[in-house]
Design goal:
With 397 residues, the protein is α/β, with parallel strands linked by helices. The chain contains 14 helices and 9 strands. Strands 6-5-7-8-9 form a 5-stranded parallel beta sheet, sandwiched between helices. The protein has a 4-stranded antiparallel beta sheet with strand order 1-2-4-3, covered by helices on one side. The longest helix has 30 residues. The radius of gyration is 23 Å and the shape is globular. The two termini are 31 Å apart.
Length: 397
């Protein structure tokens, strides 16, 4: 199915956030079902439900109005409603959908979101999970070297066994201090980093690597490994400079998907074409935009053109705001462009924008670290521009 990923990723998390906010005890959840299928279109219904405080039937219509909640006491006790149900309703209706709420005071609420999706024309394999074939991961890992940082002997053995089966060259170390030392000695294509370790933990090791501009792994993808599947833990890892998150225990298929997500996007430089001092290439992934373009040949080129106009302007604004110590403006600009990077398949850069915004808004930031992240965004964007300009030239022929 083809739909609006960005809007869906705004609607559903906000409804779930509200469900959690108004449910001190009990359960929240989400269900999705196909309600209608036609040749060109599917209609799906998402039901976000909770067993929280509920809403008085006489006040149900108020919650979709600007700056309205069921009553002022609710506002004082629970705070606002995330993105705002008015905006959620607008995002739903912009896609030709609808949203309604069912609620019983004291027993909970259910928000029903009905959305149309276009038939992509691609058949789904109901018997196989959407995981690449084993030979694909072997190809992905060919000529790559990974650093595995893990203090648990059994986990070391497990990860080592999986990577050995995939013919992947790797080094295993038992603590963050040794990982930091190894990272200074040679460049790795990816680092799997346990968070909780003695001596120096994974967070400290990652910060040390990211802050040392001379470290050959300053831009290497670092994936957090942890048994704690908590949002705060994930945010702590991302704020430290990690790129992604894998919860233990994990299956070989989950590890495979994660490795391919980060290694397939990396450019394998030809030593003859680019001197090492110029840094690795960075390519945008236009598959998301192409999936939305349908028969409009100008859609992708137009989006590239907007990106090439907006990103330099925003980054220049961030640099100026940094000079003026206008941190709120830096956060606002980071928020504004994070979706631009997402649409270009630049997930790491999108996450950097989110990290900048989150750290500034929570007040948990160091000026030097924000400056470094903005400088990295600028450098990465400079690496992306040539490829996008070539894509524009090809589309104009």
């Amino acid at each position: 199915m083809i739909g609006d990923l960005t809007r869906l990723n705004q609607i559903l998390p906000n409804l779930l956030g509200n469900a959690a906010k108004f449910t001190r005890r009990g359960t929240i959840g989400i269900r999705a079902q196909l309600v209608e299928a036609k040749a060109e279109q599917y209609h799906l219904q998402f039901r976000v439900h909770d067993t929280g405080i509920g809403i008085d039937p006489a006040k149900l219509e108020l919650i979709f109005q600007n700056f309205k909640q069921a009553d002022l006491d609710t506002t004082r006790k629970y705070g606002g409603s995330g993105l705002g149900l008015t905006i959620v309703k607008q995002l739903v209706e912009l896609q030709g959908g609808s949203i309604i709420v069912e609620s019983i005071p004291g027993r909970g609420s259910t928000f029903c979101v009905n959305l149309p999706f276009q038939n992509s024309g691609k058949a789904a394999d109901r018997d196989q999970a959407p995981i690449p074939e084993p030979r694909d991961i072997v190809q992905t890992l060919a000529d790559r070297r990974l650093l595995v940082v893990e203090d648990n002997p059994m986990n070391q053995k497990l990860i080592g066994r999986i990577l050995q089966q995939w013919s992947c060259a790797h080094t295993v170390v038992a603590d963050g201090h040794e990982a930091w030392q190894r990272s200074q000695e040679q460049r790795y294509d990816l680092i799997l980093m346990d968070i909780h370790m003695p001596e120096m933990d994974g967070i400290e090791a990652t910060v040390a690597i990211r802050q040392d501009r001379s470290n050959p792994n300053v831009r290497t993808p670092i994936i957090a490994l942890t048994a704690a599947a908590l949002l705060d833990e994930r945010n702590r890892a991302l704020d430290a400079g990690m790129n992604d998150y894998l919860t233990k225990p994990f299956s070989p298929a989950q590890l495979q998907q994660l490795l391919q997500r980060w290694l397939d996007r990396q450019h394998r430089p030809d030593p003859a074409e680019t001197p090492p001092s110029e840094g690795p290439g960075l390519e945008a992934d236009l598959s998301y935009l192409r999936s939305l373009s349908s028969s409009d040949e100008r859609f992708v080129p137009d989006m590239i053109q907007i990106f090439l106009q907006e990103i330099p302007r925003a980054l220049a604004g961030m640099q100026r705001a940094l000079g003026e110590k206008a941190w709120t403006e830096v956060a606002s600009l980071a928020h504004r462009i994070n979706s631009n990077y997402m649409m270009m398949g630049l997930v790491e850069q999108q996450e950097s924008c989110r990290r900048i915004e989150r750290q500034i808004k929570t007040g948990k930031y160091q000026a030097a670290e924000i400056q470094r992240m903005v400088a990295d965004l600028d450098r990465d964007s400079q690496l992306v521009y040539p490829g996008l300009e070539r894509e524009l030239e090809r589309s104009a022929r």
